Amino acid sequence: MTKEEFLIELKIRLKKYGIANSDQYISYYSEFLDDLMEDGYSEKEAINKIGSPNKVILSILSDENVQIPQAKSKVKSALLLLGIPVWGPIIVAGYIILLALAFAVMICGIALSLSGIWLLLGSLVVLFKTGILNFLFQLGTAFIFGGLGIVFWQLFLFSFQKTYSLVKIMFHSFTKERLDHEYI
Amino acid sequence: MNPQLKKGLLDVCVLAKLRNSESYGYAIIRDLEPMIEISESTLYPILKRLLAKDAITVTKRIHNNRIRKYYKITAIGEDEITKFLNDWQNVEIIVDYIRGGNIND
Questions:
Q1: Which of A65-79, A82-96, A97-111, A159-173 reaches the highest mean pLDDT?
Q2: How does residue B77 score in pLDDT terms, banded at 50, 70 and 90?
Q3: Residue A54's closest chain B neighbor by CA?
Q4: Which Gene3D superfamilies does this entry report, sorted A to Z (chain B) (predicted)?
Q5: Total CB pairs under 8 A between chain A and B
Q6: Of A56, A175, B24, B27, which has the fewest beta carbons less than 10 angstroms from its beta carbon?
């Protein structure tokens, strides 16, 4: 772990616990690491001496003067809970729209690839029936459709993934908030 | 060492270290470490506590192209040391009593 990684880890944890003066802690530990390294410690040794970000966070949390905005987030979750009848249907509707969009893209992907394949097969018939020029034209069209099919298919996978992770983030933030309360 | 006792001693140790000259976080720990257990994470609340009661002041200064915070003792801080030393005379009597020595009653 480098000094930067250590400080980023620390900052993430400070933010997670809602510690207001996180910048002061960051500059304090940054100064310390610099001083240790100036005194002949390697970057790794300096970080080992201070301990893991987890250990540092625990000692910061055990410091009585740290203000944890617990009451505020409690009010926030209570408001969120009370508001379910209002924002619940909106979120569900939004989610259904997103799913419908992903579904439409998927249908487009399937239709375009199928017509691409059909045109490709048809071009062989054209080659024997009408000649090379028409065959080339149809072959080109087949490739265009096939390519569009692939593009739409990728678009579908991407949008589906995004919709899925959006839901995951939503649930995750709920459960995480719960855990924080129990921990503190 | 008993954590309660150590907590009281650490504050005065930091003040005593600053009595001679101003200093910065790492130097404070380096000097006190051989004598009493102190770490980076324990020093921070001590400095914050001392700053809150104006026993020390802090100034930012550039050192090797970075900012370093220097701490300086104030008159209030020096009073704290004197108060501690006065208190300690009473503590010595108590320590004698705990050891089983005689007390004049």
A1: A97-111
A2: very high
A3: B41
A4: Winged helix-like DNA-binding domain superfamily/Winged helix DNA-binding domain
A5: 48
A6: A175
How far lies A28's CA from each of A35, A50, A63, A153, A164, in Å? 11, 12, 15, 51, 40
CB contact under 8 A, B68 and A25: no
Tens digits of residue pLDDT in A136-153: 888 899 999 999 999 999
**Gap between the Cα atoms of B26 and A41, Å rounded:** 13
Residues A82, A58 within the same domain: no
Residues A43 and A117 reside in one and the same domain:
no
ipTM comes to 0.81
Shortest alpha-carbon distance between residue B7 and chain A (Å): 12
Cβ contact (<8 Å) for A36 and B26? yes
**How is domain B3-98 classified at the CATH fold level?**
Arc Repressor Mutant, subunit A (1.10.10)
Does the CB of B104 have a partner CB in chain A at under 8 Å?
A: no
Which of A71, B20, A173, A165 shows the shortest CA–CA distance to B28? B20
Chain B partners within 8 Å of A36 (Cβ) = 26
Chain B contact present for A27, CB below 8 A:
yes
In this structure, is residue A14 part of a structural domain? yes
Instruction: Tell me: do A78 and A52 sit in the same domain.
Output: no
Q: Domain tally for chain A? A: 2
| A122: Cβ contacts below 8 Å, ≥ 6 apart | A138, A142
CB contact under 8 A, A60 and B42: no
B26:A25 CB<8 A: no
Q: Are residues A128 and A158 in the same domain?
A: yes
Q: What is the pLDDT of residue A20?
A: 76
Torsion of CA B17, B21, B24, B25, to 10 degrees: 0
Clarify whether residues A81 and A168 are in a common domain.
yes
Q: Are A25 and A9 contacting, i.e. CB atoms less than 8 angstroms apart?
A: no
B68 interfaces chain A, CB cutoff of 8 Å: yes
pLDDT higher than threshold 60 for residue A124: yes
Instruction: Clarify whether residues A141 and A177 are in a common domain.
Output: yes
